[in-house]
Amino acid sequence: MYQINQAAQTYLKEKGYKRFSLKAVLFDMDGVLYDSMPNHARSWAMVMQSHGFNMTPEEAYLHEGRTGDDTINIISKRERKAVEPEERKKIYREKTEAFSSCPPVLPMHGSIELVRKVKDSKLFAMLVTGSGQPSLLDRLNHDFPDTFIRERMITSFDVKKGKPHPEPYLKALEKGGLKPFEALVVENAPLGVEAAHAAGLFTVAVNTGPLPDSVLLDAGADFLLPSITVLCHNWENIYKNLQTATCI
Q1: Tens digit of pLDDT for each residue in 136-175?
Q2: What whole-number distance in Å separates Cα of residue 109 and Cα of residue 86?
């Protein structure tokens, strides 16, 4: 249906692996586990504009996956306005407060069932996010019980270089004791896809935002689906095809 087998064979051939031996799925958080990006986009735009920067909610989707510090740095350099470290902290603190004051976000449709299916497949789940939002991180154990333990989480607090740099996913591999062919990534943001691709991981992109499919494919997605729900409904077929794919 979605030619997953062809995508898997292409990946194995390009990376020089004989087959997958899946042990884990690495999940992004915003736009994958939670339908939180609209709140992030509004919060970023409102706070940045209040500090005299030209940023729209739409632009926030292009920065999705970056650490807050990196996002502020890029926009300030673009607009040639110096921002000292203390001011960057203040801006991000205000953005965090603005996000927390938004209506509560819900898990993405299909995400809870998808995580359950991943665990039923005898795989473990890891979180790899550029976010440091306590309001979501603190909810993970409630919405996804006994899944995203701290030892299997990489957040903005754990890296020096955020997405699109591969460090977050390389740290996840190290933390999980994984080789690249033992994990797959679920991402919705081009910068996250780019980071996972640079780390050598098979990356399933789900287009849950307003960006065109081409942006995710150009970032290096190995396989593209239109939603978490579609991924969930087709999980068994996707997992089977990955596990049985061989380099030809």
Answers
A1: 777 898 899 999 988 899 998 888 888 999 999 999 999 9
A2: 38
pLDDT in tens, 83-126: 899 999 999 999 989 988 988 889 999 999 999 999 999 999 99
- Chain Cα centroid distance, residue 214: 17
Residues 126-162 as b or e (16 or more Cβ within 10 Å = b): bbbbbbbbebbbebbeebbeebbeeebbbbbebbeeb
Q: Which of 14-28, 137-151, 161-175, 220-234 has the lowest mean pLDDT?
A: 137-151
> What distance in Å separates the CA atoms of residue 37 and residue 42, rounded to the nearest whole number?
9
pTM: 0.87
Q: In what order do the strands lie in the sheet with 223-225?
A: 153-154, 124-128, 24-27, 183-187, 202-206, 223-225
Instruction: Convert 6-34 to b/e letters by CB count within 10 Å (16 or more is b).
Output: ebbebbbeeeebeebebebbbbbbbbbbb
- How many other CB atoms are there within 10 angstroms of residue 63's CB atom? 23
DSSP state of 183: E
Length of the chain in residues, anyone?
248
Distance CA 49, CA 52 (A): 5
